[in-house]
Amino acid sequence: MRTDRILHHFAGSAVATLVALSALLMAVPSWGLWGVLAAALAGLGKEALNGRGTGTIEPSDVFWTLSGAGPVMALWLIWG
Description:
The chain is mainly α. Helix content is 81%, strand content 0%. The chain has one domain. It is built from 4 helices and no strands. It is elongated and about 40 Å long.
C-alpha cells in the first residue's frame, strides 16, 4: 500500500474521530454522521488544494480519506 494512501486513511480517521467526539460531547444527534461528513469534506478540500497547484489530483485520495471514517461509522451504528 502506498504511503500516501495510509496517510489519507489516518487523516480521515483523525478528522472523523475528533468531529464525532466533539458532536457526541455536545449531545448532537447523528454524531457519527458528522464525523463521516467532516472526513469527506477534508478529502475533497485536500484535492481542491491539489487542483490549485499544491500537488497531484488523485480522486482515489478522497476514497482513502473517507475510508478512515469507517471505524467511526461502525461505532456510531453499534453504539449510537
